[in-house]
Amino acid sequence: MRCDDVLGLIRNHQRVAYQMKITSSVLSALLLVSAAPVTFAHHGWGQQYDTTKEMELTGVVKSVQWTNPHVRFQIAVDAGKPTEKLWTIESNSVGNLSRMAITKDVVPVGANVKISGFGPGPAANFGLFMNHLLFLDGPQKGKEVVFLRGAAPRWSDDTIGSDDGLHGKIVENDINKRPSTIFSVWTVVYNDSNSHGLHTITAAGAAPAAAAPPPPAAMAAGAAPAGGGMAATTADGKVIVCSPKSLTQIMGTPYPVQVIDQVAKSKKIIFKAEENDSVREINITTAAHKVPAGVAPSLMGYSTGSIDASKKKMTVTTSNVQGSPDTVYTETFELSDDRNRLNYTLKTSTSATTQGRFWQYQPGASVMPYGCTN
Q1: Rounded CA separation 272/100 (Å)
Q2: Predicted model pTM
Q3: Which partner for 201 in 232, 250, 334, 356 could form a disulfide, CB atoms 3.0-4.6 Å apart?
Q4: How far is residue 187's CA from residue 195's CA, in Å, rounded to a whole number?
Q5: Domain-located, residue 286
């Protein structure tokens, strides 16, 4: 389970369960001073942070690292005093924050701020995952940035950012301005189980009605990120090394994707996912699916496909997937009648289950660089 999934299920009534006001003595016990040249940002998130309560601290922003999978800050508490302590702060992903209209420039170095978030979990003794930030001085004094998707403001009604885009509330009302083919950028709708990852489709082939997320009490808060992935950054946050993702992980991604028509140029259709800068190549052909000799198995496998004349439906066959090279995956990508969704299904030769999901069209959305430097 991804930390974004966990965060999306934590609402305002959980975060006020109780608050902890941090003193200098508590800060000393919980301090993280990161001097290593490489830091790892995506280990067992729920073990690192205690999501049952929030704590607050006040300090000066010393640095901003605007990188995936989490933006990072350095906050100095008691700056300039003998008791000064430096905290490493994490928050949401660059992709999600951009769709919440929160950019790197929002939080400048040198700003005096009050923040709240999830403090260290039982398996960690450092850091804080920031949910809210309040400016205490400067031109933005009194404004609050809500970093936690789905959360209400904590201190102020004068807020920066909105999660409407993440929740599918930004829609192109003019159907003629929506995509007329599958070739577009498509976004996930958080809090909709039919969009937020792969789900099982019912017997008639219809997707089940959207279900509410499970209550926070049922969350496996200590679960590691999907695939056990770990992302590393340099000390200044400028480099990310991404762990490879499998075919099903990428097709279940919570990040935007793009379907790109390169048939005329290379007889390929490109499926691009923002997560890990992932790219799939689908070889368009009328011949039966066959993996060319000498092509080694890979996490994405080898894909062939066909697309109808209207470019509204593509059928794909994939095999040669690392770990199960003999398994055949059959996929469909189809534009909805209202041209607002890209519907997706996935079957395997080893199971009778059909999985599926949809992505939504959102005007102005893009697939942003994730920052991998593998």
Answers
A1: 22
A2: 0.79
A3: 356
A4: 9
A5: yes
